[in-house]
Specification:
The structure is a homodimer of 299-residue chains. With 299 residues, chain A is an alpha/beta fold. In chain A, 37% of the residues lie in helices and 23% in strands. Chain A contains eleven helices and 13 strands. In chain A, a hairpin with a 5-residue loop joins strand 11 and strand 12. In chain A, helix 1 packs parallel to helix 8, helix 3 runs parallel beside helix 5 and helix 9 crosses helix 11. The longest helix of chain A is centred in the C-terminal third of the chain and has 18 residues.
């Protein structure tokens, strides 16, 4: 077991100006694990209710995602409902039902304990910390979060941040954490809070990555038709870490390539609702887009 | 005479949270011409008042900018005063005084009439059209504009747009012109309005360039210390067109390199107030940053 992902496994209802999709699978863990599964065989930790679609569990199996850490509890799966505006960057949360996440105590299965890479995808930072305490000696710990936790549990979040190597967050979130407008300066300040690598996700504007020695700026893949942006950031992180797990290295050159693979996975995710694009996606399509990306930024 | 630039030649007062700079040289023509002068010897068309700093005219001379088209009229130079917030993307215009621009009728000097490249930098679209009527047979016409003209003279602006090859505008502006949220779709729609190339400037997020056959996405150069963002877009366009004039070609590969040189010129411009960074900038510094940019996006 090399990459273990803890996150949420949701049922989402998503509304865009064109379409409303009722009760489809979502969540940070679902998206990140599926994106990573194109590069490696991740294990997942999280909780679902009795209504989580069996069909998605079949996809996890087919993609060789280890589900020993996915607990099924009595009751309903964590539910989120959101609406996107004409501008897909404008998202409104309409409803959140914690359901089985209430009182959930994550347990890492014995076979996950020696994971080399732990990804604490977006979830309550107390649960992220709990998992981190159970891992034995990970080589690399990455975390993601969201504005909700920065507001609600800043202390717990900063405690986890001190223990991670890679911090993924979007531009709005990092501006909440570091009171500063310049993203390069923010990225550097984040490095003083624990992580060795700041990965600032900027949605349609790509990603800015800083460590102490290098800066990497990667535009987003230009997508003319964004069907559903839900999970794009989780897929970025999943692709990024899946690639690092595959190459078993975290040198600058690996990080740069991981950023492009992450970008490619996010660009596929938004082409259809929920995880639907991953149903048919092939690795050769991923490689093809990776090469198209090379062309995009060439000069 | 190969590149001719029409634009405004201002006196600006600029306030940032740290510093207030009174009455320094600015304007779309000033910035674009200085940026272009590192690659070629542009001619400029515009009007100044008696109070325009002679010291700046000396810099134009030193940089071999042809000022035969720069008319001096009685009265005061066009004046703009603006304030930036802690986030340099937030700009408030405090004062605008038209002064000598009032009733100005631009005249292209005879020696400019055979210009290969005409750059209609941001100025009243009626003046842009007037200049275009006076040019004899330019190979390449580029234009820039601003939200003010999109609101105030949309018909004149669209008339000019039909006659240009390259359209530079920022993301806010193009969203006003094309009612659509997706920048790739906007870029494509702009191509139906006249230009062969849409160049969408996104400030700190870089630039997105589309023609019928290719897409080019270039991040901004990561600047940790933005002193004064005024004129960054004009310097981008000036560097872009100066480079195209230098290489005398406009193939895809040239456009991609031009975009990086434009990005580099904008990144220098914002490092000091007004045009101050260009006083000491050398071509080898430009080449050095161009190479650093290659590293930035490499993978």
């Amino acid at each position: 077991m090399s990459l273990v992902i803890i996150g949420t496994f949701n049922i989402d209802t998503i509304e865009t100006p064109q379409v409303r999709k009722e009760r489809i699978a979502g969540g940070s863990g679902t998206y990140a694990a599926l994106a990573a599964s194109f590069f490696t065989q991740p294990g997942i930790v999280g909780v679902i209710g009795e209504d989580f679609p069996g069909e998605i569990l079949d996809i996890f199996k087919e993609k060789k995602i280890d589900t020993h850490g996915l607990e099924t509890r009595k009751g309903k799966t964590f539910f989120w409902e959101g609406r996107y505006g004409d501008d897909p960057n404008q998202r409104t949360t309409l409803k959140t039902e914690i359901n089985v996440l209430h009182g959930y105590e994550p347990r890492i299965p014995v076979e996950y304990k020696k994971a080399d890479i732990i990804f604490l995808a977006n979830i309550d930072p107390d649960l992220q910390e709990d998992i981190l305490d159970q891992a034995e000696n990970p080589q690399l710990v990455a975390m993601d979060t969201m504005n909700f936790w920065i507001n609600k549990k800043p202390d717990a979040l900063l405690r986890v941040l001190r223990r991670v190597n890679i911090f993924f967050a979007n531009d709005e979130e990092v501006k909440m954490l570091v009171r500063e407008a310049n993203l390069v300066a923010i990225g550097r300040q984040l490095l003083t809070k624990g992580p060795k690598l700041s990965v600032i996700k900027k949605g349609e504007h790509g990603v800015l990555i800083l460590d102490e020695k290098f800066v990497c700026a990667i535009p987003a893949f230009p997508s003319e038709c964004v069907v559903d942006p839900t999970g794009a950031g989780d897929c970025f992180a999943g692709g990024f870490l899946g690639y690092l797990d595959k190459v078993r290295s975290c040198e600058e050159a690996d990080v740069r390539r991981a950023a492009v693979y992450g970008t490619v996975m996010a660009s596929f995710a938004i082409e259809d609702f929920g995880i639907d694009r991953f149903r048919t996606l092939t690795f050769s399509e991923i490689e093809e887009r990776y090469e198209a990306f090379r062309k995009l930024v060439s000069f």
